[in-house]
Amino acid sequence: MKVAVVQFPGSNADWDALHTVRDVVGADAWYAFHKSTSLGDADAVVIPGGFSYGDYLRAGAIAGFSPIVASIREFAGRGGPVLGICNGFQILTEMGLLPGALTRNAHLRFECRDIHLRVENDGPFTDMGRGTLLKLPIAHADGRYHTTDEGLAELERHGQVAFRYCTPDGDAPNGSDANPNGSVNDIAGVYNRSKNVLGMMPHPERASEAILGNDHGLSLFQSLRRHLGLQ
Amino acid sequence: MSTPANFPGEPDSSPEIAREFGLSSDEWARVLSTLARQPSYAELGVISVMWSEHCSYKSSRVHLGRLPTTGPQVVQGPGENAGAVDIGDGFCAVFKMESHNHPSYIEPYQGAATGVGGILRDVFTMGARPVASLNSLRFGRPDHPKTAHLLKGVVAGIGGYGNCIGVPTVGGEVQFDPSYDGNILVNAFTVGIAKTDDLFFGVAEGVGNPIIYVGAKTGRDGIHGATMASAEFGEETDSKLPTVQVGDPFMEKLLLEACLEIFATDCLSGVQDMGAAGLTSSSVEMADRAGNGIELDLDAIPRRTKALSPYEMLLSESQERMLMVSKEGREQEVFDICAKWDLDASIVGRVTDTGRFVCKATPGYDPFDGTGAPDPVVVVDLPVDLLTNAAPKYDRPQKSRADAASIVTMTGDAPDDLGEELLTLIGCPNIGSRAWIWRQYDHIVRDGTVIRPGEGDAAVVRVFCQDESGTREKYLAVASDCNGRHVELDPFGGAAMAVAECTRNIVCVGGKPLGLTDCLNFGNPEVPEQMWRFAQAIDGLAAACSALDAPVVSGNVSLYNETDGNAILPTPTVAVVGQLEKPEHRLGLGFTCEGDVIAHLGRPSRGVLGASEWLVQHTGRVTGAPVGIDLDAEAALQRAVLEIARAMLLHSAHDISDGGFAVCLAEACIAHGYGARVALPAAEDAPAHALLFSEEPSRIVVSLPASNVDAVREICARHEVPFREIGNVTGDSLAIEGVCEVPVEALAERHAKALDDIVS
To answer: What share of chain B is helix, strand, coil (3-state, %, to 5)?
Structure first.
């Protein structure tokens, strides 16, 4: 498996992504700097977390104008799997590759802690089965997913919701802080319509090794491997 | 020699201006006699800021020499931007702690944020990639009208900067006490990793080499910040807002990446960040370390505002700026890498062999808007030595505290319901959960946090050491500590306890302490009683660092933490970096296994309540007999626990500190929701409440499988450390035999809500 990890100015979980896909998953992985226009011969692209361009204007807004973005669009357009984590999710919505927007957490604070997720739909990164429960960390200030009523109905109708926040037992948060940011319909991650682009606020790349106390995140990368026909 | 030119609009220097800039009349006289002429206005600014307490350490230098700073593991001791200790295979851990107290009180978000930015720069200036940060915070009493605002602002500021730049904030400590009502403390610590052979130093070497300015442009922010940090606060403090700098962590992230890339090309001969006293101190200190001079062309300084005078450019504390000395002919490599990261870089001067700090600028020329044409004249021409070694140095008078002999030995009345007392303690702001704070910090970025905040007595981070032969994973433990109340009662013993608690925290997670950095926060050194506390504390730190093999490799002094004559508790904060041989040696603080044996290591309590949280709550004062510390016993305890941890005989280890034995047990229960049934160990006959809540040091509570008890007992015996089996992990309440029984759920609920009253 060959994976390009995109580096914007201000990306800061680029190492987390590179380390996990290269050293833990065993992929051939490299950084694609934002001033470049090439992703190389990547099988998949990861847009990592961080504060691209310092979150100036809006989180992810300016990154959408970097030279590398045309290559990402082209790669996604021909069905290549793209995973945007945290700031990467924000960038994908700003690029228009994913619907909706991420706004300030309902409690207005940055929050870093473990949360629980339920897998809602199959896709390249989520073949572990609907209803599978995962524990993953979050670390964000702008993770509250929003979209229009029609957009939300579309998402649900087409099975684009990849993950929903839930309690440790898998129950719906029902307004509790099991939904850590106030996202609509408890949405933690969404696919595009053709399901090759996934954006998610939680960090699977920070929970893929036993030494970190949790390797639930590894299942997403293993799913990607299988999707690419690799074992 | 005639006086260099003043700029249009600048007055001639005078005793009045000198006083306004913080110089005493003696110091002004010394300036005149040394120069044998009147200084220019800009020169007076340069001298006053370099002679400020913050930059010159003029009241503390005579004492700091007593600290132990050497050891086989020390790679770099005090005097550079940060210290460094060896972590094996050609790599070192580079670390320092620094205060940002005064700015954080005036503007908590930016004050704290730029404190984090400053300490990060100190570390990456050495060529190290920052891998973890801590912070040690002190606020006034929880119900003081400013406390909530200051706490929220400081925590948001630390998070805002550290989260953005992508260095995990993995721990720290916070204490609330009325002595900090008018002077909060914000001490920030960062550790980074470097190849020992590739460390960079702040030296202006190579006469003729170009001096390159990299990073943010210069504005008027923070002018005379270092002088502000060297004076007491009074009623006019709120008007000092313009002396606070504003941080841009995104700029710092670019600077970090660009610097590490530039360092790797080996095209620099020296580098220093522009911190306190900005361009002045960075260039003067670099020239001083190399025994050279520096000449600056101020017309070339990148700026973001009109009509900056030499005085303003030299004293600005605009953030995210670095000064580099490139090797001759290799400037272009620096410019190319800066361009890649969209950073400004310009040549602003040269290294000279004159031993003088010379600045030139053109009156009436403003490159910002193109007014006039450059035709520079000399505006500053001072001997470097005058600003560094020849700066004033005082052995200020000391006086032991007048009431020292008459400290009331209060023990408080014995309470009826000790379970209720424990619930109150575990839920109070000084002891309860800090999750509200550390959840606002990204404590897991960089995929290395192996023991997270709240999980152990210290944080443990995995660091990736990369060289030609590949990547090695190493494991560092970091902690910071100080309880100013114990230092107030007994400056020597309290300071020694701070070191002991910090190194004890490192061994409790399975690490060996390697080195220490300090941040010495005290009141007005011109008050003999305050100076005495400082000198005593230095001796206490020195004794403990020697006994516990934790040499001081870097540090910072913050004096004048007083408002309207009220000084803070003496607070010599320390942070220790340790290393685990193997990740399997790591230990958390919480009980993990039903049926495990619980044991108490070290001499049990004598029931001395001095300076304890319980006694302060019950008397409203920092009082009682000092608890004292036996450093030989402490060292033996730490050696024993490290050996036991490395033999992997334990399931948990937690030291007894704030709140005493009962709080230690309660925290070990709350962590994973296990109960415990234990006997209360005692060295002497004392009331139960005194044994429960005494904060005597050198005690650790461990849990272990019954099958390991004999092995642990044997190791303790060999180190002459008292070992006592006191009970078991069992049930769903904490039961202390014959004293109290409290459901763990109730303890956990109070613990979780400890900061709610302040922050909600």
So the answer is: 35, 25, 40
pLDDT score of B9: 85
CB proximity A142 to B under 8 Å: no
Q: Does B53 touch chain A (CB under 8 A)?
A: no
Look at chain B and count its residues: 760
pLDDT digits over B117-176, tens only?
999 999 999 999 999 999 999 999 999 999 999 999 999 999 999 999 999 999 999 999
Residues from chain B contacting residue A15 (CB–CB below 8 Å): 446-447
Would you call B439 and A206 a contact, using CB atoms and an 8 Å cutoff? no
- A-contacting residues of B 443-502, CB under 8 Å? 443-447, 449-450, 452, 462, 464, 471
For residues B378 and B358, the answer to whether their CB atoms sit within 8 Å is yes
Contact B449 A212 (CB under 8 A): yes
Q: Which of residues 41-60 of A touch B (CB under 8 A)?
A: 49-51, 53-56
Residues 54-93, chain A, touching B (beta carbon < 8 A) = 54-56
pLDDT, mean over chain B: 94
Residue B478 has pLDDT above 70, yes or no: yes
Most confident of B224-228, B317-321, B628-632: B628-632
Would an 8 Å CB–CB cutoff place B165 in contact with chain A? Answer: yes
- pLDDT greater than 60 at residue B238: no
Residue of B463, B532, B461 lying closest to B491 (CA atoms): B532
* A–B interface: beta-carbon pairs under 8 A: 86
**Is the CB of B443 less than 8 angstroms away from the CB of A110?**
no
Q: What is the pLDDT of residue B227?
A: 65
Of B150, B69, B160, nearest in space to B104 by CA: B150
What pLDDT, in 10s, does the model give residues B548-594?
A: 999 999 999 999 999 999 999 999 999 999 999 999 999 999 999 99
Q: Which class for A49: exposed (0-12), middle (13-18), buried (19 or more C-beta within 10 A)?
A: buried
Cα A47 to its chain centre, rounded Å, is 8
Contact state of A139 with B449 under an 8 Å Cβ cutoff: no
Q: Looking at the complex, does the CB of residue B673 fall below 8 Å from at least one CB of chain A? A: no
Distance CA B319, CA B224 (A): 14
* Phi, psi for B482 (deg, rounded to 5): 175, 135
Residue A150 known to be catalytic: no
- Smallest CA–CA distance, residue B743 to chain A, in Å, is 23
pTM of the model: 0.96
Helices (H), B84-231: 101-106, 108-124, 147-165, 225-228
The fraction of chain B above a pLDDT of 70, given in percent, is 96
| Tokens found for residue A92 | 């994908």
Helices (H), B548-657: 613-619, 631-646
* Interchain contact, A12 vs B340, CB within 8 Å: no
Dump pLDDT digits (tens) for B700-727. 999 999 999 999 999 999 999 999 999 9
pLDDT for position B230 = 66
* A112–chain B nearest CA distance, Å: 5
Has B54 been annotated as catalytic?
yes
For chain A, state the CA radius of gyration.
16
Please indicate whether residue B405 or residue B424 has the higher confidence score (pLDDT): B424
ipTM above 0.85, yes or no: yes
Measured CA to CA, the distance from residue B299 to residue B359 in angstroms comes to 10
3-state DSSP of chain A: CEEEEEECCCECCHHHHHHHHHHHCCCEEEEEECCCCCCCCCCEEEECCECHHHHCCCCCCCHHHCCHHHHHHHHHHCCCCEEEECHHHHHHHHHCCCCCEEECCCCCCCEEEEEEEEECCCCCCCCCCCCCEEEEEEEECCCEEECCHHHHHHHHHCCCEEEEEECCCCCCCCCCCCCCCCCHHHEEEEECCCCCEEEECCCHHHCCEHHHCECCCHHHHHHHHHHCCCC
